[in-house]
Design a protein that fits this description.
The structure holds 3 protein chains of 3 kinds. Chain A is an alpha+beta fold. Chain A is about 45% helix and about 15% strand. Chain A starts with 10 loop residues before the first strand and ends with a helix. By secondary structure, chain B is an all-alpha fold. Chain B has one domain. In chain B, strands 1-2 form a two-stranded antiparallel ribbon. In chain B, a hairpin with a 2-residue loop joins strand 1 and strand 2. In chain C, about 20% of the residues lie in helices and about 25% in strands. In chain C, a hairpin with a 7-residue loop joins strand 3 and strand 4. The chains are: A alpha+beta, B mainly alpha, C alpha/beta. Chains in contact: A-B, A-C. At the A-C interface, helix 8, strand 8, strand 9 and strand 10 of A face strand 2 and helix 3 of C.
Chain lengths: ~400, ~375, ~180
């Protein structure tokens, strides 16, 4: 792969369906207009600023400006002890808080080298997968509303309400849970929770199908997303993409399968990769389809967990394995997990003496996925820009940390 | 076509009797009657937009989306629109410092005027029409083009790139879609042999009720009907053609910078246009103020439901039905992109409109 | 970071990392340290920072290594030694089954490290963040400017000796 020329010397024009990209070299001509999709904008999913240079309706370049939601997570992490970082981690990717906590706890547990009780492992996986479904519902709903279909958004949120109630029952909070702790979980499932989750799974299966059909069988939706925002597989890997974005480009890579953690090796689920029949591999529609199918796979995982989960004996305490003082030995680790948006990794350095980390870097999936925005948006029309951002499914809390 | 051949008129009121009577009414030498004629459709637009327009849209969309909609203000939220209007009335009128003040202020005005002027030729029943022009249909289609000037003025005068984008897209869309719309309506005019709106309704009046409607008189009439319906969605900037006001891209398109009463005027203009195109399509294809009920033996339903007041009710009901369809489509379909929109207009609707035109002409000349 | 004595049995992961290290050290043995094969994150350090770009290209393009995926590039502060550095977690995604970490250090006062933004495009933003937080300048970076802090922020926030500025555009910063 050769080095690519600098972005500012390239200007690309495309035919509307995204194919036949033609590279034309030109400087900033007098007809180009700088348009600011400002920090406050209905469709940038948070406080993201996109500065677009447009030539009529064609975007010559769209550069993201970040930092509007930067809350200094990494600096806080150096001042707070290991268990205290868990609520901070929640607030990074607030739509998938359980998964984020999971990633962090896995990283620290690698340093501590402790064994988690089996039932707690199942608890963790069930809430993580429920949160994955909730997060994908938001992604699909907001993607639809960006494209002008107002109704699927409300259907998605109606179903997400059920998940929020379940998670509230388990952890006490609807969105920022502080449930998965280092070495265990904060509470066991209440009595009757398994039955309720089972009911939800039965209720949601046909709804997931209905959602798919409402959008993917809709001619206008397909026309708006097919062939838009193409990203070939090797460029995607080079950009550090992961999760549904990478799978949408055809790469079969899922951390739950390729770098497994917790009890995922025992579970049977498919890694969703588009087959190119409904969409072109690497376009926005593929990424959307991956998320839609992943929701079904999460339902399968939850069902298997409910079957295999060991029953709670008398006096089971999910906090039993948590050490009194979490003081890992000196060392460093890069622990990661599969978030709904990609790979959330934590690079944690411990000096063996204190209860606070020396360094806790959060490698956030959205930050990396968004870095390809400039290249993907070249030569697209402005409405397509909205379609591309929606398909990246960013959460600014994670981008800016 | 003699009127008395076709239907007995209860209450012994002849065609355009109410509007003729009103136009003769003078008070202190001032033609107050003409003012009343102009005011009646205005009051109608205001009332319908308040009740059915805003409240109906919110409730209908709510039920389609599995939620309740406005419920707080008044029983079932009926007074919600009143509350909204009161709020809008007492808002501060903000005009940007760098905005072109003249264009900014007259933009909504021209928009509303263009939309409202077409109401002059809408027949609200056999006895009332603002102006019974014998080129009524031509006038109705033509005067809508005035809206384009208003949109451009609003978009440019806002001094906002997003508003400008919305305005330009809207202008391109309206101007392009006028062509298939006009050709489709011409098919209807061919079937009638006249351009007068009252004559359309009279010709579709008969004892078999809805079977006299032009939609059912001609095996090809469904095609111009469909084409005009789709084109009218684009004319009024409704989804799936609502790129100019695409909420998630351009915030609110050409009326981003408007607040308070000016915003209310633009909104009123949009609902007015919605009713106008619904009324045009009802008049041309679905009988206007004629009753759809047939005379079945001794149940002379058609005769019973015909008359000045019944006529007004029928055209309003038919208009409302199409407005319901427009709302339904808005909440179901995503929006088309600008180039796809243009593609649909020029490469799909216009050729089919021409085909419909030719086939209708063939039917009229040779088959009738 | 001194390590406890190495475990006799290396896991499959550690073996793969060691094998990959072998290939790199054959070519660049003089510019890198021996592999620190700790169980949580095996890494080696590049002692000659000037050759970092070369090593990175080799790691990406060599058919036996194919480290195509840069998972994370973190800035790091070593206050005791007066150095700054970066830690890169590399992986061969889908081709070989090895992952390895690389560290590169530089002085605190003249913190310059060659950029690898042209090797792994993801590094562009990660390096911008390292610059923003630590003040490490990446030579030949296509677009080195602050990414999370405002453009005119003073100081390098994640350094251990960072003192927050008194005011920013008239807003009092420390509470």
């Amino acid at each position: 792969m050769q080095e690519l020329p600098k972005a500012e010397h390239r200007s690309v024009r495309v035919t509307p369906n995204g194919k036949n990209r033609v590279v034309i070299e030109k400087d900033l001509s007098s007809e180009e207009m700088i348009l600011n999709m400002g920090p406050q904008h209905p469709s940038t999913h948070g406080v993201l600023r996109l500065e677009c240079k447009t030539d009529g309706e064609v975007v010559v370049e769209a550069e993201p400006y970040l930092g509007y939601l930067h809350r200094c997570f990494e600096k806080h992490a150096e001042m707070v002890d290991y268990p205290g970082i868990v609520p901070f981690v929640d607030r990074m990717d607030y739509l998938a808080a359980m998964n984020s906590e999971f990633a962090y706890c896995i990283a620290v547990e690698k340093l501590l080298d402790i064994e988690i009780p089996r039932r707690v492992e199942f608890l963790r996986v069930i809430v993580a997968e429920l949160n994955r479904i909730a997060s994908h519902l938001v992604a699909i709903g907001t993607y639809a509303i960006d494209l002008g279909a107002f109704t699927p958004f409300l259907f998605c949120f109606r179903d997400r309400e059920h998940i929020m109630s379940l998670l509230e029952w388990a952890s006490g909070a609807r969105m920022l849970y502080n449930y998965i702790w280092i070495g265990g979980a904060s509470y066991d499932f209440p009595k009757g929770m398994q039955k309720r989750i089972d009911e939800f799974v039965t209720y949601f299966r046909p709804k997931a199908l209905e959602l798919q059909r409402l959008l993917t069988e809709n001619e206008i939706f397909v026309k708006r997303t097919k062939g838009i925002g193409m990203m070939p597989a090797d460029v995607a890997v080079n950009y550090g993409w992961s999760g549904p974005m990478l799978r949408g480009s055809g790469v079969e890579w899922d951390l739950r399968r390729n770098d497994p953690y917790s009890i995922y090796p025992e579970l049977d689920f498919k890694v969703c990769v588009p087959d190119g029949k409904h969409s072109e591999i690497g376009d926005s529609l593929s990424r959307h389809l991956v998320r839609a199918y992943e929701m079904e796979e999460s339902l399968n995982i939850i069902e298997q967990c409910l079957d295999k989960m060991p029953a709670a004996e008398e006096g089971f305490n999910p906090r039993a394995a948590i050490p009194k003082r979490i003081r890992p030995k000196a060392g460093e680790v890069y622990g990661r997990a599969e978030n709904p948006r990609g790979e959330l990794g934590f690079y944690i350095v411990s000096d063996g003496k204190s209860t606070k980390p020396v360094r806790c870097k959060a490698r956030s999936s959205c930050f990396v996925n968004l870095s390809a925005m400039k290249e993907m948006s070249m030569g697209q029309l402005i409405p397509d820009l909205v379609a591309i951002i929606g398909s990246i499914d960013i959460v600014l809390g994670e981008v800016d940390r | 076509m003699m009127l008395s051949n076709h239907f007995p008129i209860p209450m012994s009121m002849s065609l355009n009797s109410w509007s003729d009577a009103l136009s003769q009414w003078h008070l202190f030498g001032l033609p107050l009657g003409l003012v009343v004629i102009a005011a009646i459709p205005l009051v109608f637009i205001a009332l319908y937009a308040l009740t059915y327009g805003v409240y109906g849209e919110r409730k209908i969309s709510a039920f389609m989306q599995d939620r309740l909609g406005p419920m707080e203000v008044g029983k079932w939220g009926i007074l919600q629109t009143l509350a909204d209007i009161l709020k809008l009335l007492q808002k501060e009128d903000i005009v940007n410092t760098n905005a072109d003040k003249f264009l900014f202020v007259i933009g909504p005005g021209i928009l509303f005027v263009g939309s409202f002027m077409a109401f002059a030729v809408l027949p609200f029943g056999p006895a009332f029409i603002g102006a019974d022009l014998n080129v009524g249909l031509f006038y109705a289609i033509g005067i809508v083009a005035l809206e384009v000037v208003g949109i451009l003025a609003a978009g440019w005068g806002s001094n906002n790139k997003w508003a400008l984008y919305g305005a330009i897209r809207s202008v391109a869309q309206i101007v392009s879609y006028e062509i298939p719309a006009a050709i489709a309506i011409l098919c209807g005019a061919m079937m009638a042999g006249t351009l007068s709106m009252q004559q359309f309704s009279i010709l579709q009046q008969g004892e078999y009720g809805f079977l006299h409607f032009f939609l059912f008189q001609n095996p090809i009439a469904w095609l111009p009907f469909l084409i005009y319906f789709i084109a009218s969605l684009a004319e009024t900037n409704r989804a799936p053609f609502d790129i100019p006001e695409a909420e998630s891209e351009l915030v609110a398109g050409y009326f981003t910078e408007y607040s308070g009463m000016k915003f209310a005027v633009i909104f009123l203009a949009e609902y007015g246009s919605m009713f106008m195109v619904s009324a045009i399509i009802s008049v041309v294809f679905l009988g206007g103020w004629s009753s759809p009920l047939p005379n079945i033996g001794s149940f002379a339903l058609n005769d019973w439901t015909t008359g000045p007041v019944w006529g007004a009710a029928w055209i309003v009901l038919k208009g409302f039905f199409f407005i319901f369809l427009q709302m339904w489509l808005r909440w179901t379909l995503p929006r088309l992109r600008v180039d796809q929109l243009m593609y649909v207009c020029w490469k799909v609707l216009t050729p089919f409109a021409f085909v419909a035109f030719v086939l209708t002409a063939v039917w009229e000349i040779y088959m009738k | 970071m001194e390590e406890t004595p190495q475990v006799k049995e290396l896991s499959g992961e550690a073996r793969a990392a060691a094998a990959a290290y072998e290939i790199i050290s054959e070519k660049f043995g003089d510019a890198i340290t021996p592999l620190d094969a700790n169980p949580t994150m095996p890494f080696f350090e590049v002692t000659d920072a000037e050759r970092w770009l070369e090593i990175a290209l080799f790691m990406r393009d060599n058919p036996h290594l194919r480290f195509t995926y840069l998972a994370c590039l973190s800035g790091m502060d070593y206050p005791d030694e007066g150095k700054l550095g970066i830690v890169c977690n590399l992986e061969s995604l889908g081709e070989h089954d090895h992952r390895l970490a690389v560290k590169v250090r530089c002085d605190r006062d003249n913190a310059v490290i060659p950029t690898v933004a042209r090797v792994w495009k993801t590094a562009e933003w990660h390096e911008r963040e390292a610059y923003d937080m630590y003040g490490i300048t990446f030579s030949n970076h296509p677009d080195l400017r602050r990414i999370l802090c405002p453009e005119d922020w003073e100081g390098w926030p994640l350094r251990k000796d960072y003192k927050v500025q008194e005011s920013y555009h008239g807003i009092q910063v420390p509470y």
